[in-house]
């Protein structure tokens, strides 16, 4: 079985067998995954709401489409920023680092001692990190390669995601920084599967309506 801490920063790609309408053809970026549970955001659920309508100061830093994405069914009235800082290298220690006391799933990013992470950005995995939306946008304007704003998130209790993996609800694959800012998010499910170097590439051709197969 995969170690619990090893899935942070990876993608959960919904299998065709997953029946939950909240996650039909979903691609979820895991932002936190340990023995206490899991938290992530759905990358391919754009909403009609413009970022400028709710977070005007950050609108200029978001890529196309410049809308808010529904990160999941939990806490839809909260906003979460995920940003890519180009040039950041993978740091394996970050993947296993325990959260500091008082850090919740949506706690503001902190600058880590001894690290060169930009102020207002906390690394999650490689070049991908959480953005402190309460910080002045100009602090990150020169650093961010891309930014996406999510309303709500996806959460699993202790052992819940592991059980779903056993049941075959998700494929687990490596993420790429470009997944966060895909200009065509509705095609992300097929695009992520298509780039796999195994039988998962064939799943990308699975019809939206299985009755048409």
UniProtKB/TrEMBL annotation:
It holds the Pfam family DUF179. Signal peptide: none annotated. One of its GO terms (cellular component) is cytosol. Residues 88-97 have a biased composition (Basic and acidic residues). InterPro entries: AlgH-like. Belongs to the UPF0301 (AlgH) family. This is UPF0301 protein J1792_02125. It comes from Streptomyces triculaminicus. The lineage of its organism: Bacteria, Bacillati, Actinomycetota, Actinomycetes, Kitasatosporales.
């Amino acid at each position: 079985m995969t170690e619990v801490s090893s899935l942070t920063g990876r993608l959960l790609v919904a299998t065709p067998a997953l029946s939950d309408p909240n996650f039909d053809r979903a691609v979820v970026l895991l932002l936190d995954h340990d023995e206490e549970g899991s938290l992530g955001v759905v990358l391919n659920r754009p909403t009609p709401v413009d970022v400028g309508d709710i977070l005007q100061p950050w609108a200029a830093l978001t890529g196309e489409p410049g809308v808010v994405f529904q990160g999941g069914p939990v806490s839809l009235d909260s906003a979460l920023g995920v940003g890519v800082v180009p040039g950041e290298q993978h740091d394996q220690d970050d993947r296993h680092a325990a959260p500091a006391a008082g850090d919740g799933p949506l706690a503001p990013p902190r600058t880590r001692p001894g690290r060169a992470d930009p102020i207002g950005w906390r690394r999650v995995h490689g070049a991908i990190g959480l953005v402190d939306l309460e910080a002045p946008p100009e602090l990150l304007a020169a650093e961010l390669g891309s930014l996406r704003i999510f309303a709500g998130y996806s959460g699993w209790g202790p052992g819940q995601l592991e059980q779903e993996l056993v049941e075959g609800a998700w494929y687990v694959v490596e993420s790429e920084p470009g997944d966060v800012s895909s200009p065509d998010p509705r095609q992300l499910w097929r695009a992520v599967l298509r780039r796999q170097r195994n039988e998962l590439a064939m799943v990308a051709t699975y019809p939206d309506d299985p009755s048409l197969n």
